[in-house]
Amino acid sequence: VPQVYVYGVAPSERCWRPDGDEGVHGAPLRVLEHGPLAALVSDVEAEVVGRRRELRAHTAVLEEALDRSPVLPARFGTVAPDEDAVLDQLLRERQDELLRVLAAIDGLVEVRLSGSYDEDAVLQEVLRRHPALAGPPPSSIQARMDRGRRVVEGIDEQRRLDEQAVLEHLTPLAEEVRADPPRGELGAFALSFLVPRSDLDAFDAAVRAATAPLEARARLRYVGPLPPASFVAVDVGARWGS
Amino acid sequence: MTAMMTSDTLVRSRPSSGLAEVLDIILDRGLVIDAFVRVSLVGIELLTIDARIVVASVDTYLRFAEAVDRLNIRAKSEAMGIDDLFGGGGGVSGAVESGLHSVGDKLTGEDREEEAEEADRE
User: Fold this and answer.
1) Contact A49 B29 (CB under 8 A)
2) Which of the four pLDDT bands, split at 50, 70 and 90, describes residue B9?
3) Using CB atoms and an 8 Å cut-off, which of residues 4-23 of chain B contact chain A?
4) Which among B14, B34, B71 is the nearest to A63, CB-wise?
């Protein structure tokens, strides 16, 4: 018996109507409706385990839907036992709350800007700011560790400077900003911005201007638009992540 | 709309083609319906997920100490020029330094290969 994979919830009136489009595991997408709310779903028989292809399918569905209406995304891998569960426990029981959130995020999208340093380039910058680190290699292990610790602190300092510079540029143009801890030894920053869709072109230009000075030392990635999952917090019945 | 931009400026990618960058958001954020199953994701093949915040360790310190030494040596040999390195009385230290330099190049080459593999896995 197939279960029902849930991608997200949108207002019925404006929800994307898939026409032969496929979701996770190539299953045809369909819309379940209850009054003013619609859920994008597809049948799923095999286990969803987080393969790249599954993640890509999940994301592509939300992408299409977001082009047409506000969407509350379900976390990846949400599976309902059957259609009735989606209609009753999601669309009916949580109607007021879901409608309220959908109204609040109407016209808003999330974009993600992250960067990771080129090791040599960021170290050059650290050495430029801390010439004391440029001496000949210390001989004792303790002194070497101490030098390494100061280099790591220098990279941390660089992170703060770079994140601050980017935020100063972009915060005034965003409705909300969320700064996550950068990943890895050479992660520079990981920033999410809540932006009106109608302002995206202007925001793109601002992102290019804000990041231009960093291009010499960081690999930058800029992704969007996403449903604004980093910015919605609802706590009535349904639980929202992070 | 982004297709017209030149390749040397930062272009916004669609989420389904910039998956690695939005993985945390897809996996950790969004509506959770308590009554519904959330799959366990044991088989998740995306190794990027384990690249969370790294707590600096002794290994990290030593690695970065070595990395700045390598940069310092390179900067010094570039400033001196090849004739100075091998001319006069500095022969021994010059040879040692240029040896270190080529070790550094090898390491960098390996890093590049690793990056290329990571890109392939995407």
Assistant:
1) no
2) confident
3) 9-16, 18-19, 21-23
4) B14
Stated pTM of the model:
0.80
Contact A75, B29 (CB under 8 A): yes
pLDDT value, residue B34: 76
What is the Cα–Cα distance from B78 to B73, expressed in whole angstroms?
8
Q: What value, to the nearest 5°, has the Cα angle with vertex B61 and ends B100 and A132? A: 75
Cα–Cα distances (Å) from A31 to A8, A23, A51, A100, A127, in that order, read 10, 12, 24, 20, 57
Low-confidence residues in chain A, pLDDT < 70: 233-242
pLDDT, tens only, A66-108 = 999 999 999 899 999 999 999 999 999 999 999 999 999 999 9
Please tell me the distance from the alpha carbon of residue A30 to that of residue A22, in angstroms, as a whole number.
Answer: 9
Two structure tokens written together for A234: 């609802």
Residue B63 has pLDDT above 60, yes or no: yes
Burial B58-93 (b: 16+ CB within 10 A, else e): eebbbebbbbbbbbbbbeebeeeeeeebeeeeeeee
Query: Under DSSP, is residue B5 helix (H, G, I), strand (E, B) or coil?
Result: coil
- Cβ atoms of A159 and A184 within 8 Å: the answer is no
ipTM of the modeled complex: 0.85
pLDDT at site B41? 62
Are B35 and A100 a contacting pair, CB within 8 Å?
no
User: What CA–CA distance (Å, rounded) separates B86 from A188?
Assistant: 39
**Token pair for residue B29?**
């954020």
Residue B43, pLDDT above cutoff 80: no
DSSP B3: T
Report CB contact under 8 Å: B30, A8: yes
Determine the Cα angle at B10 with ends B8 and B16, to 5°. Answer: 120
State the smallest CA–CA distance between residue A108 and chain B in angstroms.
15
B108/A120 CB distance under 8 A: yes
> What percent of chain B clears pLDDT 90, i.e. is strictly above it?
7
